[in-house]
Amino acid sequence: MASLGLGLNLSRKKNLSRNAAVERKNLITVCRFSVKTLIDRSCFETIDDSAPEFVNFASILEQILSHRLKGQITWFGYESPRSFWDYIRVACSKVPHSCICSIENMENVSSSRAKGRAWIRVALMEKRLSEYITAALRDFKTTRRFYDDGAIVLGEEANMLAGMLLGLNAIDFSFCLKGEGLDGSFPAVIDYTPYLKFTQSSDSISSDEEELRTLGSSGSESSTPENIGPPFIMDENSWYNKCKRVEQKYRLALEQKPIATRCSQRQGGTSTPRGGVARQDSSPAAATDAIVARMVDSTDRAMGRLWSML
């Protein structure tokens, strides 16, 4: 029993360690993508509170700075939730000419979460967000006091975070510090959909073409499009190209039907049995019609399935 309990504890620790590593990797990766989209958007217009790229970036940064943040112990021994602003306020208090005091004295911002969101906007407008993050991470004693083991700010990802934020200093931001974005009533939610784009490899495309070539050659139900597993998520161009290939297959099948029928009729011809009575042998033509019909029917169903996914 003791060895079984020890094995379960080791397995649980391994799973927790793996989950924490994946969570850190996901947040850092999506933050890198978000910074790139912000830089791309800034080439065409000024970034303000209404820009979806900024809204998502602010949510991502808030999630990173809140990752495994310790709660605050009350007088009664209970743990109350904290905001990342409680950490930034202490860790960045010694940064020269910082905006920390200005944020603390804002009249229209009362909650700790709202002050943290105001700090992100002010730091971006000052082009000093990376400087603030770097100064906070250097204060390892304070960082250790506010975060549990496995937090992003305590791992190797912390240096990556400060480096990728440096590119935001080239962007001109314009924010309103009295807008709805500072509402601290609701937690930040990350929108992952802008970064989830499947790019089909050349080998996969070749495999699809081979499947389309053999789509109508089999009459078994197991190879029909209705029994194929869930499709991959692809972009609009990939679906369009795939539909065009199926459409070409469909047209080719229709063009080959009368040719195949005529050829089978010529090959079948007439035959004279022992009784001396000539009869028409239509079995080859009927078999060809059946094969071509199955091919057209399978391709037609594939076309309908692909267009319904667009």
From TrEMBL:
Compositional bias per record (Polar residues), positions renumbered to this chain? 215-226, 262-273
The record's listing under CDD domains reads:
RUN_RUNDC3B
Q: Where is this region: Disordered?
A: 207-231, 262-286
Q: Where is the RUN domain?
A: 48-180
Keywords, A to Z, come to: Coiled coil
Its domain of life?
Eukaryota
The record's section on InterPro entries has: Run_dom, Run_dom_sf, RUN_RUNDC3B, RUNDC3A_B
Q: Which residues form a coiled coil?
A: none
**TM annotation in the entry:** none
Give the UniProt family note.
Belongs to the RUNDC3 family.
Q: Identify this protein by name.
A: RUN domain-containing protein 3B
Protein species of origin: Leptobrachium leishanense
